[in-house]
Design goal:
The complex is a heterodimer of chains A (112) and B (115). Chain A contains no helices and eleven strands. With 112 residues, chain A is mainly β. The model of chain B has no long low-confidence stretch (mean pLDDT 92). The chains are: A mainly beta (112), B mainly beta (115).
Chain lengths: 112, 115
């Protein structure tokens, strides 16, 4: 069975610090990867796609390590508003619904 | 603005009652999904549909039913056979053209509780 694993946390981090967390996946044929952010009792919202070359969007950097089968999310200069649960999504080839696998999320708490 | 609309935001079910959650999208997406989320848990797939008049069971379809009569609409019925329906239900859609880079868009969710 395809698996996507995340450290559930919570990660308690002081404001302004840098925090990183990973998401490991079991299917070496996985094609696409995404990070979503979910606030309590809200819908997940796309944070960023993860490209093979790595990508950056402001304070957020996502990277893919195919050899070790994980993706990572780095948040620099963390803000109180970054407190949320971060979900990784792994998509297998074919793109059908059963090709989408969600991690259970990493809970991040930024403390003042 | 294009998007996915779920209603109602909160829903209460009595014992033995069927209830229907609405999901409508105007993104012209082919693929639509229903997920269930329990507190502190990940998303679990209930049903999905990749084209009108066709749908497939997900991992936890028992006690649920769906229909896809129109491209825009994918309602979920929680039947009385679902003995533990209390959860946060999320509808999602994506273009569904087979490109693995297609992003998934979510509705705002429905919180279902049992009276």
């Amino acid at each position: 069975r395809k698996e996507v694993e995340q450290d559930p946390g919570p990660f308690n981090v002081p404001e302004g610090a840098t925090v990183a967390f990973n998401c490991t996946y079991s299917n070496s044929a996985s094609q696409s990867f995404f990070w979503y952010r979910q606030d309590c009792r809200k819908e997940p919202k796309l944070l960023m796609s993860v490209y093979s070359s790595g990508n950056e969007d402001g304070r957020f950097t996502a990277q893919l390590n195919r050899a070790s089968q994980y993706i990572s999310l780095l948040i620099r200069d963390s803000k109180l508003s970054d407190s949320a649960t971060y979900l990784c999504v792994v998509v297998d080839s074919g793109g059908g619904a059963d090709g989408l696998t969600f991690g259970k999320g990493t809970h991040l708490i930024i403390q003042p | 603005d294009g998007g996915i609309t779920q209603s109602p935001k909160y829903l209460f079910r009595k014992e033995g009652q069927n209830v229907t959650l609405s999901c409508e999208q105007n993104l012209n997406h082919d693929a639509m999904y229903w997920y269930r989320q329990d507190p502190g848990q990940g998303l679990r797939l209930i049903y999905y549909s990749q084209i009108v008049n066709d749908f497939q069971k997900g991992d936890i379809a028992e006690g649920y039913s769906v229909s896809r009569e129109k491209k825009e609409s994918f309602p979920l019925t929680v039947t009385s056979a679902q003995k533990n329906p209390t959860a946060f239900y999320l509808c999602a859609s994506r273009p569904g053209q087979g490109d693995t880079n297609e992003k998934l868009f979510f509705g705002s969710g429905t919180q279902l509780s049992v009276l």
